Give the backbone structure.
Amino acid sequence: MKKLPAERGRVAVIGAGPGGMAAALSVHQAGHDVVLFERYPHARPAGNILNLWPPPIKALGLLGVNTEDLGAPCTAEFRNARGHRRVLAALPEQVVRDYGGGFIGLLRPELYERLLDALPEGVLQDNHTVERVEQDESGVRLHLADGRVHEADLVIGADGIDSLVRRTLWGDSRKREHNLHIFGGYTFDESVATEPGMCVLSHTRTVQGSWTAIRNKGRDGHQWWMLEAFDASREFTGDLHSRPAGTAGRCAACGGASKASSAWRTAV
């Protein structure tokens, strides 16, 4: 039997992305009152490629999210630039038995939809923009765009890199640039000759590439990404399709990513 807290707290979560929804589910499961504010008129699935390892899949299931047939479990390995295996990610037998593999490929919108279905009625408040947050020893006050004020004991900021909570605490601090850029996509084109049930990562001195099996709403496919150094102060003016395909040519083991990127033009 679930043990409820001695005193119910009032928690507000800002941002109804996967992180915000998972936080709201956890708070609700712990026995507290929670409200999830989303600024868009309707919470909508968004995003692209995604991989999860077994621990978050297990956590989602414990939060009440339906994880049946969620993503494609993969065997993950690292290969050198010539395509030879360097490291195989070995997993305990129990993990393979329970989850099928370690690097689980899926598309972000399906995860979003499943989280949305798991939310208790009344928790999500969409079309509610939080403009300002104040706090003192009595609690926290969220000032909404429609003029209302919502009071809580705790606020969780899950509204992205420009989080209102982050700005409230630390001001408009400069974001740290990693000077990297990434290309990625997915395809359900059956002619793409990659190995099912595999996640392969490879690199040269300047480029990292990967392709991995995915599963989305009962359909099998592949996703890929290419990562390379890039000066963040410059504007990228290249072609989004030819650039990753050309880059993959410098990394022999990234052939699957190169093939998948050629199919991406018509598949996405």
